[in-house]
Amino acid sequence: MSWHPQYRSSKFRHVFGKPASKENCYDSVPITRSVHDNHFCAVNPHFIAVVTECAGGGAFLVIPLHQTGKLDPHYPKVCGHRGNVLDVKWNPFDDFEIASCSEDATIKIWSIPNQLLTRNLTTCKKELVGHVRRVGLVEWHPTAANILFSAGYDYKVMIWNLDTKESVITSPVRTITCHQDVILSMSFNTNGSLLATTCKDRKIRVIDPRAGTILQVSAGAMAGIISGSTTEDTSMLYLVGKGDGNIRYYEVSTNKPHLSYLTEYRSYNPQKGIGVMPKRGLDVSSCEIFRFYKLITTKSLIEPISMIVPRRSESYQEDIYPPTAGAQPSLMAQEWLSGMNREPILVSLRPGSELLSPRPLPEERPVFNSVAPASPLLLNQAEKLAAEDGWRPSSLPEKTPRWSGEHRPEEKRSWLTNGFDVFECPPPKTENELLQMYYRQQEEIRRLRELLTQREVQAKQLELEIKNLRMASEQL
């Protein structure tokens, strides 16, 4: 009888962690020494935000991603909370908007300017007031725009609709009251129709967030994990422990034993917290499939750690970069609140690629042979819909030039990389700077193509709305 060792073939079997060099770390950063269980850090392709200490209130730093090295001791802060900041999260659909929550029981939404901060930012865009005790967690909805979740020490999870002109919002659209102790973490499924929470009572709850009902309860949740990041596209699970220096990673499978240990990244420096770069901010040229930002309070240091798949070829590796969630919402706030679900809009990480799953169009209704002209009232309604969406269909009369000074902010931002206009940057002086500028320009081209595709889809949607309105007027 021969013995056959169990061997698993996996493209991620030899993934290794690569810490950044000293000059590519963020040094002399006054990281908070709070004992609250949280990440204390949030990252997107433009900025890294980290909670810091501040006399007389709470604050956090927003550092441009490229600004590595030693931080100026007088570097401006984002401050305005009356108590310590406990959590920060970037808007997944707007790299210049961030949410923060605090011991002062409020949540604040901040607009980060494109240029570098020259002084403290103290005026927030919106303030959410509803919790009666400190707020420990905030999470953005993964597919719906302007939907924010918060969890407080009043044992409540509140759902906020930010799609309003009010600067101070005092009424959440939903309050979930099924927890009996402090909520330690929140996480969504892919389309955001389900919410999972861990609680200090050592239970994991799966919740229907719109109904506020518990669908499943499991016992044995751990309170000490600060990050359990699963990547849906690569089926990898990373475990990062607070106070631990190591990062362990596993491969998730539908077959037993479902979780297979790969290896771990080892370090003697314990992490206070961790930030995770969205997939769209990775360096695909170096086969980077994940990137952490490790907070090391003992050294006042933020250390980027790249997870690398070793490949000899320098070309784009299609098999390790499956389509991933992009920076466009697939639902508006009211659509999700009314019960709709949609999967994320996917993008390819190949430089210069386009959207893979644009927002689906509504089903077209049967069209009669003769269509009566729409009434002025219906045209005004259609024009209002177009104005709310930032576009005017070609069938409507133009009242203002298409390229006026009131174009949407994201169109203006799409020309910016790391907060700077790519056409106003000084010429590169080294080969490395030239290569970085090339990749930045490729990223801008990709984003502009995504924006163009989204606008075309929106234009078709509005044309269908007008057609339906004309049909309705004929029936009346």
Automatic annotation (TrEMBL):
One Pfam family in the UniProt entry: DUF1899
Biased composition (Basic and acidic residues): 399-410
Superkingdom in the source lineage: Eukaryota
Stretches assigned to the DUF1899 domain: 5-69
Keywords linked to the UniProt accession: Coiled coil, Repeat, WD repeat
GO MF annotation list: actin filament binding
InterPro entries: Coronin (IPR015505), DUF1899 (IPR015048), WD40/YVTN_repeat-like_dom_sf (IPR015943), WD40_repeat_CS (IPR019775), WD40_repeat_dom_sf (IPR036322), WD40_rpt (IPR001680)
Entry keyword annotation includes Cytoplasm: no
WD repeat windows: 78-120, 128-170, 176-217
Coiled-coil features, chain-numbered ranges: 445-472
Keyword Coiled coil: yes
UniProt cross-references to PANTHER family, sorted A to Z: CORONIN, CORONIN-2A
Membership in a protein family: Belongs to the WD repeat coronin family.
Protein name according to UniProt: Coronin
Gene: CORO2A
